[in-house]
Amino acid sequence: MSDYTDKVVLVTAAGAGIGRECALEFGRRGAAVVVGELNEELAIQTAADIAESGGSAIATQMDATNVPDIQRALALAESTYGGLDVLVNVCGGTRYFGTIEQATEEEWSITIDTNLNTVYRCSKYAIPLLRKRGGGVIINTSSVAGVLPGSSNAAYAAAKGAINTLTQAMALDCAVDKIRVNAIMPGMMLSPRILGWIENNPGFENMGEQFCVMGRAGNPEEAAKLVGFLASDDASYITGALVPIDGGYSAGKQADLMDKGHT
After folding, report:
1. pLDDT, tens only, 14-31
2. Residue 183's closest CA among 169, 163, 155?
3. Going by CATH, does the domain composed of 8-259 fall within 3.40.50.720?
4. What is the rounded distance in angstroms from the CA atom of residue 173 to the CA atom of residue 82?
5. Which of 20, 56, 194, 215 has its CA 20 to 30 A from that of 47?
């Protein structure tokens, strides 16, 4: 397991799910972590949990769709810890479902802004700090939906597919500055959001068994360990990669549940 001592990491949406587990993972490995999160209480809790385990972290209320918030988080990384080495773009998700015909202009715009544009904005303002450190890493959170869309989820699939190609374009452009850029593509992860969705949709309790050839849904901790690897020197020759972590779903298995509801 790679050590992140003397490294500074900013994680967005770090109050719950994959973002929180990424922040905890980097904290356990010795990094100084800037915990960015829209919900300030959750940000403070994640930072406190890192500190309680012997790590170093600072919380900041951060709306990743808002440039001043992003700039404040990056300034905090520089003023508190001296710079930035790793950016983990986790902010995303959707609360809207529908076909392209059903999606309203507002639902489309919010979904694109929350997923794709947050990667653009956070990366745009983080790259100069990474360059100042002589290089660094950006990890974007895409989704298996970016390569294998589900039904009635057009805006989300479009946003995640765009993150994939943006990741590759960034990898090409940033290589000259020794900045590696990769993306993870989670499948069904038992994050609070997904657990809440399952609770509100009876009959889907065992959907992980049907979605994944491994017979179970994934845990956010597993995604965090992949992020920890991709950001480390152990992955020093990996850039522009889109790495699925989906229990084999994108290898070709289709779920019987796909005809029963939104996927």
Report:
1. 999 999 999 999 999 999
2. 163
3. yes
4. 25
5. 194
CA distance 186 to 192: 15
CA distances from 112 to 12, 192, 196 (A): 17, 21, 22
- Tokens 């790590």 identify what position? 55
Q: What is the DSSP letter of 64?
A: T
Location of structure tokens 């080495």: 85
User: Hey, what are 109's tokens?
Assistant: 């715009």
Q: What is the pLDDT of residues 28-57, one digit of tens each?
A: 999 999 999 999 999 999 999 999 999 999
Taking alpha carbons only, the member of 248, 246, 119 closest to residue 186 is 246
Annotated catalytic residue within 4, 81, 156, 249: 156
Structure tokens at 105: 């202009």
Predicted TM-score (pTM) of the model is 0.93
Q: Where are the domains of the chain?
A: 8-259
**156 included as an active-site residue:** yes
Closest C-alpha to 50, from 24, 20, 12, 30: 24
Position 263 confidence tier, pLDDT thresholds 50, 70, 90? very low
Tens digit of pLDDT for each residue in 196-249? 766 777 766 676 676 677 888 899 999 999 999 999 999 999 999 999 999 888
Burial of 1 (0-12, 13-18, 19+ CB in 10 A): exposed
144: its two tokens: 């298996």
Kind of pairing between the strands at 179-186 and 136-141: parallel
